[in-house]
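Before relying on records like the one below, remember that each one covers exactly one chain. Contacts with other chains, cofactors or solvent are not represented anywhere in the record.
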Amino acid sequence: MPATTIDGRCLVAGRGQGPLLHATLGLSFWGGVDPSNGEVIDRHHPLSGQSLAGRVLAIPSGRGSCTGSSVLLELILSGPAPAALVLAEPDEILSLGALVAEHIFGIQLPVLCIGHAAFAQLAAHHGSFARVDGANLQLFAHAPDDGWQASPLEPVETQASTLELNAGDRALLAGEQGRAAQVAMQLLVRMAELQGASALLDISQAHIDGCIYTGSASLRFAQQLLDWGARVRVPTTLNAISVDQRQWRALGVDPAFGEPASRLGDVYMAMGAQLSFTCAPYLLDSAPTFGEQIVWAESNAVAYANSVIGARTLKYPDFLDICIALTGRAPRTGSHLDAGRQARLLLEVEAPAEADDSFWPLLGYHVGLLATVDIPVLAGLEHSQPSRDDLKAFSAAFATTSAAPMFHIAGITPEAPDVTRALAGQAPRRTLQVTLADLRSSWAELNSADSSEVSLVALGNPHASASELARLAELCAGRTRHPHTAVVVTCGRAVHDQASASGHVATLQAFGVRLLTDTCWCMLGEPVVPPDSRNLMTNSGKYAHYAPGLAGRQVHFGSLAACVDAACSGQNQGQLPAWLGQPQPQGTH
């Protein structure tokens, strides 16, 4: 008999059993799990080095990248998937990966939500054997010898009466616009029900993150939609893909990876998406305006669109993004609505004096860790005057460590003229302090290198803007790059053209900078990352977090100017910047 039985909400039907693998910290499957073998590669996570294969994974929720759904599908189709997922709260990104496996490929991986109170009980069952059977979780001291089989269950059926559909929605569901649109609407309705939406709404544009190649599953999914006649119904841009389409062969990328990765981008363009290939769609001329209802995937772009522009999107997972682009409809819930954009967490920030540009990504990384799923409002920065590039860096780092779709900064972001209005007049659920001492702890977390050597300076995560390239050119002009330190910058094609016309590309190339388009650092490995390198340096809080797992390198994190200094010397001593240094004792000068 089981020692403990817990009932929950079945998000995705199925049965599975295996050793319980439990953590109290959310996990981003993209950048956190190797899709080829199921190993946790997030070196900042307590499960680092563990294998998910055949185990019942219990985490509070996902976090970070929208590509987690694609990684989970890859694990399911290739074999090293967990036996089941147990969550404290519903997670759309992970649930969708399992829904696509069930709906399109006929393979079930159960996803069960048990709530925070029941989830807290799991800490006492470390080392237990777990069994998920639909909406039921059983915990055993040892694997039972009872002949139980993980046979498939009937899918969780949508109750049509709970979701208001218009005539166009029903026509799509009936297949009147073709098989691809029908399947897209079926998946959309399932997700809308899971999210508790009462209706769907029209959207004006989409940005597709599913064009990132995580393995054959991502290409199989897109190709199947195309074979069914998929065509987007709204203007649609594409995220950075996994290779520079024009240079990958010259860069020495293995064709076994480069060819399908490039093909994936072509498949989405064949559906009618634009050749944009950037993880910073807010830099394009097609960027949305305040209040515009959109559907964007790519976590940094979602945070930026919601928070800095004031457009409206959920943090859409890969695969759902293209489903919505094919239907032009999205769930009417969450941050699409006023009520879903209100802050619930108040963070009182100690503003540093004369901080450099490393402050914003560092703060974003730290705030994301504190926020988890709650939308925060930051107070105390009203006079800081961050640039758009600063807010871009903050958004990316925040979205790496948080599952929330947006943030507010009082006096800076458009929906937070002050703290009271960001909170919609309500008292915050939590109030926390963010001191410089707190930020020093996160600085130490991001700076993982244990030696001063810098073999690679990696810039442009998210993609560099034209103003960032101009600043970089200014810092590099008249200086000499160290012969053993590579400098590589990723950016979108449109920004590259702007920088070229301004003369900045010529200045950067004279210094020895290599500029790549189409792809981004979260998709790059050897040989772009020098095979004999040990450490890299970046000004991106996002990449400083992901690089130890994705690139297998230790990291120096710092300002853009510090990165250029390291490019010239081949070294970074790892000292704290002056604005973050230990405060002087009272009475000293």
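The CA atoms of residues 581 and 587 lie 17 Å apart.
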